Amino acid sequence: MSNAPLQTRELAARESDGIHILLLWHPDENALTVSVEDARVGDRFQLEVAPDRALDAFYHPFAYAA
Question: Which of 20, 21, 47, 65 is deepest in the core (most CB within 10 A)?
Answer without folding.
Answer: 21
